[in-house]
Amino acid sequence: MAETSILINGTWRPARPVGSFRAFDPSTGVPLPELFPVSSREDVLEALEAGRKAALELAARPPETIAGFLELFARRIVERAEEIVAVAHCETAFPIEPRLRLNELPRTADQIRQSAEAARDRSWRRATIASKLNIRSMYGPLGGPVVVFGPNNFPLAFNAVGGGDAAAAIAAGNPVIAKGHPGHPSTTRLFAEIAAGCLAETDMPKATLQLVYHLNPEDGLSLVAHPWTGATAFTGSRAAGLKLKEAADRAGKPIYLEMSSVNPVFILPAAMRERGEQIAADLFASCSLGAGQFCTKPGLVIFVNDDAGRRFVEAARGLFEQPPSGYLVGPGLIGGLKAAIAKMKLQKAFVLVGGTETDGPGFGFANTLLAVHAWDFLRSPDVFQQEAFGTATVLVFAPDVEEMTAVAEALGGNLAGSIYSHGQGEDDGLYRTIEPLLLRGVGRVLNDKMPTGLAVVPAMVHGGPFPATGHPGFTAVGIPAAMLRFAALRCYDNVRPDRLPEELRDKNPTGRMWRLIDGEWTSRDVFS
Asked: Are 458 and 481 in contact (CB under 8 A)?
């Protein structure tokens, strides 16, 4: 069987492969028939050269052209929704309804539309003008292609071609080299076919979006560190992310990583007495969503192990004893769960429910509930903060609120963290102790809700301190903030008016773009 072509510089052509692979049907564990190439370094260099040239061309395109392409891309995705959803379901076994058709695909199209609107509006550039000194600055494109590594768990919304990172990078004026995930290559190819058609219909550089399906590890490291690379966005495992980060850092190249998070949940004592069984139901619903393959899944739950706490444990145990509701997207996740559970058991964690691979076809793992006493957690906190994909979470039994506080102080960086507190304020004193400790280690703090799930709105933060990400100052979700990862801040000092970018001239080019003029955020023109 012939290998599938890659998209380089606007042309679908055979790869110069150094290997090949097939995706799996997770519901059966059987490889799918289509063969995909592992691209060579020659393929990578060709994509980089085309991307380097496209970066110069794209920087000269008006924002309206970029926005028009993104809007057309979003529209065509919606038009081909049934085909996209069917292919993604085959490669991931995620439910068509509601997960793919009603949730993830609309989110995918919506975030592309939001990126288009931000490109057209231009306020994301944060144009800043000191008129008396004639010094002006703003954010603009990086001058090189952005490399996007897609993850396994979101075949649509975080797809290397059609997902939020690619949309944000293009909206900021950068071409994209997409490195697809081997778990869903046909889905990624379908997005690339749609994008290539949209590029051909608009006045966009043909290398605005390129696709390779897979790379040898050393070629991936070379790609993120290459002098022509503008920046990299990576979503995936901590082990892979740290290797890419080391290579990019050594070369001085920006890299934005989403790697690992256990998203701790604190249940304060009065809240536990008030509604512990409902919180147990919230926990199970959050942990089991998408078979536990969300980076915002609650992986640690901390509470006082009193009578109310023990009733909560029994309620949670009953829920986790249900059969698993879905499949893991790849065989490697089963090994990852087994290894994580084994390490935690060595540090005195004990299994309350599950902990084993399921019988039967497909990549299945039993719903798993572990527990550890807070004093054992505090002896080896890093062991219990290793992200493990699947319907699995760890209950941390604290003897009192002082020990809960000690656990909060021992937490590393996470994407999100939740605090459940009493509805009438009985936990407010403890909340004021726990919240500052939690907030210093998360990008998003929640009250009375589980962390799984993200609203795609400008105020959303999907980031956090290391090792959740590589840098706490950025977000992968939320336009226009997510675009700033792929932008360079440039200053124009005493540059003649006709040589300035439109956004920095005295007249506001859109009449509505927000600019910081002499210390005031305004959409007015500069007054001489």
From this structure: yes
